[in-house]
Amino acid sequence: MRRLRHRVDKEEGATGVLVAVMMLAMIGAGALAVDVGQIYAERAQLQNAADAGAMAAAQQCHKAGGCSDAQALQWAKEMTGGNSNDGATTVHSVDLSVPNQVTVATSTLNGTNGFLTKMFASALNAPPVTVGARATASMAPPTGGSGFPLAISDKCFNLSTASDTSQVQKISYKPGGTCTGPSGTQIPGGWGWLDQSSPCEATTVMGTNEMGSDPGNNPPTGCAAILDGWKATVLAGGEVNVAFPIFEDATNQGQNGTFSIIGYATFKIWGWKFGNNHQYEFRNTASDPGMTSALACAGGNNRCIIGQFVKFESIDSWTGGGGTGEDLGTVDIKLIK
């Protein structure tokens, strides 16, 4: 009986050791599962912060006409915290080495030197984990898109001072001369209406693509609602910033006329005269606020748009492909990595 009892005691001891080892393995597996989930969640927060920081830095760098690493770092920091739900994010670095790109690297703020220290596995003497994320935003001239069906020549108007204090200009339909370039005298004036892809909208592509003209003095059909919206925005104290395709040359005439688009420039609109009466005229006479006799559009069949070219940063809103074109102050900022 003693021998039997002794054998049972040994078996009970072995079972206890086995249970202890299994418990330790289960605790470790559970800690690992929880920690991996925590790491993935933290990385998602850091990626959100990196994306926001890269977009903000790119926008501010273009608005300022360039920036230093220190400036980009500060602008990125201002956006990272609020774009991670836990608020535990720091900008690790900013890279401006690639032209027209900003790369932001983020890491966790929980712990020292970017380590994530609140880990279940630390009870098993597991080391802290480094968690980080990177994002790259580009700021480049758009290559194509859809918008108000009006193209403007680069020959008659000052496109080089795109800023809030740039020259206020009157762009007339028939300013005279050869505004449309050496072969463009058949399409009169410094602008031209474009063939529409939908009511009051034309799709254009920058580069060698030539866009068809829509002849006539008055705007294409379907523009009344858009002009009403512009008017309401200006009267409410807002700004109407419209990106127009810019052409360097025009050929032929009438419905066979074409425009070669070289880029896009954003025009802050003060007033216009696209036709007679109603929404087709707005602040286009010398007696209107901000107008002068030099800026006012004369009556009759004269047509003009009044305003100034400004720098403008759109956020991932342009589509289309094409060649590389001129930087006319308008860029599309988007995440590329």
State the low-pLDDT regions, or none. Answer: 111-115, 175-190
Q: What distance lies between the first and last C-alpha atoms, to the nearest angstrom? A: 75 Å
Count, helices: 3
Kindly give the count of domains. Answer: 2
**What value does the Rg take, in angstroms?**
31 Å
Give the amount of beta strand, in percent. 25-35%
What does the overall shape look like? elongated
Report the order of strands and helices: HHEEEEEEEEEEEHEEEEEE
Estimated helix fraction: 25-40%
**Secondary-structure class:** alpha+beta
Query: Quick one: how many beta strands?
Result: 17
Largest sheet: 8 strands, mixed
pLDDT average, as an integer?
Answer: 74
Which features would summarize this protein structure in a list?
single chain, 337 residues, alpha+beta, 2 domains, 8-stranded mixed beta sheet, 5-stranded mixed beta sheet, 3 helices
Question: Can you characterise this structure?
Answer:
- With 337 residues, the chain is an alpha+beta fold.
- The protein is built from three helices and 17 strands.
- The chain has helices at residues 2-63, 69-80, 224-235; strands spanning 89-95, 101-108, 115-116, 129-130, 132-140, 144-147, 150-153, 168-172, 191-193, 202-205, 210-212, 241-251, 258-273, 281-282, 304-310, 312-315, 330-335.
- Helix 1 packs across helix 2.
- The longest helix is centred in the N-terminal third of the chain and has 62 residues, at 2-63.
- It is elongated, with a radius of gyration of 31 Å.
